[in-house]
Write a structure and sequence with these properties.
The protein is an all-alpha fold. It is 65% helix and 0% strand. The protein has 25 helices and no strands.
Length: 522
């Protein structure tokens, strides 16, 4: 049978950090420099002293922004070297909430590195296994520390993240309320809202109750502002969004700029100020971007919608600089590596001088240890391999496509992409007026592509019957032509195994990595 997992409906990456203005980076450089120096010297006693003093100061000032910024910089990261150091730190100080929080945040990020994003049913069993085992260990470490120390808010933040994926069953509202008594601010409230997202088992009623109960505890904040935050932060739609848009117009708080940007590229795009305001907000936000791919989607929409190609190029270069800077702290971060590889491919497509497909391949290889069980990883591999070695060697390229399908539990979008590629190979093979590329044997490729097309269209029809609302089941253009051509092959007499076998027997299994590592890039 197809490998289908339905534990979670939707992947929300780490709940976004609050707007950049809540973490004024220049003011916090001294603490980060001290932490960096202590880590470089592996001086755990000094790390304990730094965080203990910072903790006391934060409690006295009722302000944990500086500590949250330091943890966000160093420990919300995918960094094997720093993670190993945190393991040694915790071993040296087993009761330290600071070491436990440092390791816990890194394990939390690692867990999501294994899982990836996307709908739960399209996550491989291997990815789920790594994710669950890692979150269980994170909860064990963070939970033990939280039982001893409940006033260290970076640890409370982590407990809320773990609550979102049901690694613990702590009640969200009391946890948020306790944190707000220690240091009032939106940060922990946003994490509480994320933990109550309906797609993760929460409800709109619980979200409303959290806003009503806790928003008044925050200075210069209100239940209405919390409602706006909840709607845009969680991506809620329908009457929630309609109401939030109306209320957003009545507020000018800078921390709601992220919501205004969302509105300006959607419902407010025809307003006279839309282009200038969208560009202003995007420029202000780029320095605090965590996920470059999501932000690029936004600036691409701004550039396209408002006819601002120069803005898009400007922001893309700023985003590249941000991603490269972030890699010094999070060098194995698949989000960064994936996006930088895609950026290289974009430059190759645009024929930018100096763009090198081997750079994309090196970035892709760096992702392999943590992301090899994800369909998206192999989907990127198909493109990287094409840029390195060309498009038309079916034997070389098939494992990339098939691993993308196998490790996504046969997600329709990956299945249809393979079918479109096979249809192009088949057209070269059977069309007498098409000149084949060097080394392309028309007879062999006609037979191979025909049988694979029959196999893939049967898989495609089966998975779309199970998930008819998937985007991959509604692609048009080349996809529609490929579907028609494949279904025409079903009526022939060739490929009896592919035509007649139970569809479960046609499912793709993962191929060994050693088969497909590109020799051209070694």
């Amino acid at each position: 049978m197809f490998r289908l997992v339905t534990v979670f409906m939707l992947a929300l990456w780490l709940a976004p950090l609050p707007a950049r203005s809540e973490f004024p980076e220049a003011a916090f450089d001294a603490q980060r420099d001290a932490v960096r120096a202590a880590e470089d010297a592996e001086d755990f006693a000094q790390l304990e002293a730094i965080f203990s003093e910072a903790h006391k100061a934060a409690l006295a000032e009722h302000d944990f922004r500086q500590l949250r910024s330091t943890y966000a910089t160093f420990y919300v990261s995918v960094n094997a070297e720093r993670r190993a150091l945190a393991e040694r730190w915790l071993a040296a100080y087993p009761d330290s909430p600071y070491a436990a929080t440092a390791l816990g945040w890194q394990l939390w990020k690692l867990a999501w590195e294994y899982r990836g994003d996307g709908y739960g049913r399209y996550i491989s069993a291997e990815s789920w296994d790594h994710f669950h085992r890692t979150t269980e260990r994170t909860q064990a470490i963070a939970g033990a520390a939280f039982a001893r120390t409940k006033d260290f808010l970076p640890l409370t933040d982590l407990m809320l993240q773990l609550r979102r994926v049901h690694a613990n069953d702590l009640p969200v509202a009391p946890l948020v309320a306790s944190a707000l008594k220690i240091a009032p601010g939106r940060h922990v409230l946003l994490l509480g809202l994320s933990a109550l997202h309906p797609n993760w088992g929460g409800s709109l009623a619980e979200i409303s109750a959290l806003c009503a109960g806790q928003a008044p505890s925050i200075p210069d904040y209100s239940e209405e502002l919390c409602f706006i935050d909840a709607t845009f932060h969680l991506g809620l739609s329908g009457i929630w969004r309609e109401t939030a848009l109306s209320r957003l117009e009545q507020h000018d708080e800078p921390f709601l700029d992220y919501a205004r940007l969302d509105a300006y590229v959607n419902e407010w795009r025809d307003r006279p100020e839309a282009a200038q305001e969208a560009m202003r907000i995007a420029r202000d936000q780029v320095g605090g971007v965590i996920s470059p791919s999501g932000f690029e989607d936004r600036i691409n929409r701004i550039g396209t919608m408002f006819h601002k190609p120069a803005f898009y190029q400007e922001m893309r270069e700023a985003l590249i600089a941000r991603a490269e800077a972030r890699r010094q702290y999070s060098p194995q971060d698949g989000d960064l590596l994936y996006w930088l590889a895609e950026t290289t491919i974009y430059k190759l497509n645009e024929e930018v001088p100096g763009a090198d497909p081997k750079v994309a391949f090196a970035l892709w290889q760096e992702m392999m240890p943590l992301r090899r069980y994800q369909g998206a990883f192999w989907r990127l591999g198909t493109t990287v391999d094409e840029k390195l070695n060309g498009a038309w060697d079916l034997n070389r390229r098939a494992p990339f496509f098939e691993n993308a399908i196998a490790y996504s539990n046969h997600a329709p979008n990956y299945v249809i992409e393979y079918l479109m590629y096979l249809d192009m190979v088949h057209e070269i093979a059977v069309n007498p007026i098409m000149r084949p590329p060097p080394g392309f044997d028309k007879t062999t490729m006609a037979e191979a592509s025909s049988c694979l097309m029959v196999r893939v269209i049967r898989i495609y029809d089966a998975v779309c019957a199970m998930d008819p609302n998937s985007d991959g089941c509604h692609y048009t253009g080349q996809a529609e032509l490929a579907r028609d051509n494949a279904r025409a092959l079903l009526t022939g007499e060739a490929c009896p195994q592919e035509r007649e076998a139970p569809v479960q027997e046609l499912a793709f299994a993962p191929r060994e990595v050693s088969i497909i590592v590109s020799p051209a890039a070694e």
